[in-house]
Design brief:
The protein has one domain: Orthogonal Bundle (Arc Repressor Mutant, subunit A). Helix 4 crosses helix 5. The strands form two sheets. The protein has a three-stranded mixed beta sheet with strand order 4-3-5. It has a two-stranded antiparallel ribbon with strand order 1-2. The protein is about 50% helix and about 15% strand. The chain has seven helices and five strands. It is globular and about 50 Å long. The termini are far apart. With about 170 residues, the protein is of the alpha+beta class. The structure holds zinc ion (3 copies). The site of one zinc ion has 5 residues, from helix 2.
């Protein structure tokens, strides 16, 4: 299992994996990538990234602001939005349009448009990036003379844990 599939599996096993490892790995990647690019990962940006990584469920800007303002009384919406802009621009965070929320990227070192499997029950999102999906979109778009600019795919459904939960409920009935 590659790192990405491992990360995708971990995304859907909230209680059953050591999330501290995900966070540590993400923060280490972020520091390395920003240092390599000469991009300034300020304390605030670092903290916002950590907050985004507090779980595998995408979190909205206001959710972030609420958590941030517990630590920084002067935090305002622009504080959070500016930090998010930076994190998205560096590829450390993805914006999930359909949820208007943000999730940490599991492979920020590579340039990619991700595919997201989003659980409609618990809200967890797992990231895949299969180049075949991007190629198929680019090819299909070209056939109708369309230039694809944003290829992020958001797929809604049920994660393994929630599927198991649904099964248990229907057995109990
Ligand atoms: Zn995790
Ligand atoms: Zn990503
Ligand atoms: Zn779920």
């Amino acid at each position: 299992m590659g790192r990405l599939s491992r990360a995708a599996a971990a995304s859907f096993s909230a209680g059953a994996h050591d999330h501290g490892i995900c966070v540590a790995e993400a923060m280490r990647d972020a520091e390395r990538i920003c240092a390599g690019r000469g991009a300034r990962l300020t304390k605030l940006r670092y903290r916002v990234l950590e907050l985004v990584w507090s779980s595998h469920a995408p979190i909205g800007a206001y959710g972030l602001l609420e958590r941030l303002s517990r630590e920084r009384r002067n935090a305002t919406p622009p504080t959070v939005y500016r930090a998010l802009d930076f994190l998205v621009a560096q590829g450390l965070v993805h914006r999930i349009e359909s949820l208007n929320a943000f999730v940490g990227c599991v492979d920020p070192a590579s340039a990619h448009a991700g595919q997201f499997l989003i659980c409609r029950d618990c809200g967890a999102a797992a990231e895949l990036h299969d180049p075949r999906v991007n190629r198929a979109i680019t090819r299909g778009a070209a056939e109708v003379g369309f230039v694809a600019e944003q290829r992020t795919v958001e797929v809604r459904g049920l994660c393994p844990a929630c599927r198991a939960g649904e099964g248990a409920e229907s057995h109990a009935r």
